[in-house]
Design brief:
alpha+beta, 5 strands
Length: 119
């Protein structure tokens, strides 16, 4: 089992990783962060709203499913938001340099970290 610090270090092992955070989506507060390139406190608050909006939309549509991850593709970056299934209310947030990353491997790394995360 990986604690928050170990989990963040593992997330940042992904090719092209810039920064990562573990976020409480109930409050929008960062539980842990590592890396550089973004104001992760601000990003956590904004992405909390993204997660809440998607959950609300799924409920409105009557979808009985869960979010594996949310991918936001920018011109130069990928942003992966992955809710932690066994810790409802938490999500991992990983920012990648689009030109240096392998999105498929980064998503697999997020999946692996999620399985081992202990908060």
């Amino acid at each position: 089992m990986g604690n928050v610090t170990e989990s963040l270090k593992t997330l940042l092992e992904s090719d092209g990783a810039m920064c990562a955070a573990i976020v409480d989506s109930n409050s929008g507060m960062v539980l842990g962060q590592d890396g550089t390139g973004l104001d992760l406190e601000l990003a956590a608050a904004g992405n909390t709203e993204v997660v809440r909006a998607k959950l609300k939309t799924m409920k409105s549509l009557g979808l009985k499913d869960t979010i594996e991850d949310i991918l936001i593709t920018l011109g130069t970056q990928y942003h992966i938001i992955r809710p932690v299934a066994k810790n409802e209310g938490l999500f991992m947030y990983l920012v990648l340099d689009k030109g240096k990353s392998n999105l498929a491997l980064a998503r697999r790394n997020c999946q692996s970290v999620e399985a081992d995360l202990s908060v």
